[in-house]
Every structure is written in structure tokens, then in C-alpha cells.
Amino acid sequence: MSAVRAELTKILTLPRVWIATGVVLALHVLVLVQSVRLTAEAVAGITPDGVIEIFIGTPQPATEAILGLLAASSLQMGLLVPVLAAMIAGQEFRSHQLGVTVLAMPRRGRLVAAKALATAVYLLLMAVVIAGISTAFMYAAVRDWNPGLLVTGPAVLGHGKFVAFAVLFGLTGFGVTVVARSTLVGVIVTIAQIAVTMTQALAGAAPALDALLPVSAARNLLLDPGINRLTAGPGHALLVLVAWAGATTAVAGITLSRRDAR
Where does the signal peptide begin and end (predicted)? Predict the structure, then answer.
């Protein structure tokens, strides 16, 4: 735990990390500011039988639609979390300070584990803040209809799924960066993963393969299958995210133990 605290202290003293965190949170607020009025108008138009049209021409049950929109609003910023994780993981390679760290902690497997845990703690806190911001803006939209919906079990479960995704996907970016010893490579791999899912390049031709990608797993974990076209269930999605995070972190530990500390 002392090693984890030391690594967490490093993270909290990196100006680049604070700047990147601020940019992500500011972008999240900016996006929600643009959409909250439209959401409020859709909520005001909920029919007596509980149907809402968030998207014109697409009526949906209001409760499910609002919870889905809440999850989706957090998900869009969660996609940027691995970029932050890559910056955290690549800092010591960029500043050539890894050798000093190894002198203080020669057991490199323990070193990688401490770095991964510290990164996970930071990403966890950031994910909770993102979910909190999403909830605050959604409250502004539904406060005259059903604000209690935001503290129900399904809403809390949705936040839990998002936090799990953010941490696991972030650890995947962390692992890739340590293996490549390059922040840029970690960022490029993250962007490539997002692009493959967003373009639906595999979802139509090979849905089983698409379900094995981390961003697709995020969609399968967080979004409503009744509204969205998904390629697997939430249980499968969670296993995929755990596998990606575990595999990349394990490979990072093996790679670091077999290379020079530079």
C-alpha cells in the first residue's frame, strides 16, 4: 500500500494530468449544457401513458429512455479516460525517470501492480465525478417530472457499470502505454479502438468479433438493448473489459521486467 500511495502521489503532482482532467470535465459540462434544454423539452412532452420522444419520431418508455440517456452521457466522456491513463503511464518514460523508480522499488512486478492500482484509484475518482456531473444535469431536466428516478436502483447500477467500464478501459490504455513505452502509442491505440466501434466496421459483418472489442463491450454493458443494436449481453461485456485490462496489465508487467529501466 505504501507503493500505491507513492505512485498516487506522483499522479497528483503531475500538471499534465491535472490539465487533461480539467479539459475532459470541462468538455463534459460543455456537451451537457448544449443538450440539457432539449432533454428538458422532451421531458415536458412526456405523454400521460409515460412515452417520451427524445429523438423525433422515436417514441420510447420515458423511464428507460432517461436512464439510457444518463448512461450514454457519461459513456461519451468515458471514452477519453484511456487517454488520461496513457499520460499517467507514459510520464516516467517521457521524463526518463523510470530508472530512479526502479532503484527505489527493484521488484518490477510489484512496481507495475502499484502503478496500475494507483492509476485505477485516480480513474475511479474521475469516473465518479463524471457520473455526478451527468446526474446533476439530468436532474435539471427531470426535476419537474420525476427527480427520484435518478436515485433508484437501476440508476445507481448504471453508474456502477460506467465506473467499472471507465476504470477497466483506462487500465487497458495504461497497459498498452507501458508495453509500448510511449504515450502517443497508447493514445493512438485508444483512438483506433473507438473508431472501429463507432464506424460499425465489425458489428454488421462479425458481431461476435465486435463484441470482443472494449468500446463495443462498453456499449453492450451500458446501453439498453431495446433501443440500441448491441452485439452481446452485459455479463459478456464485463468479462471482455476485465480480460482486456488484465491481459494488457500483465503483459506490461512482463515487458517491464525484461527490459532495461529507461
Answer: none
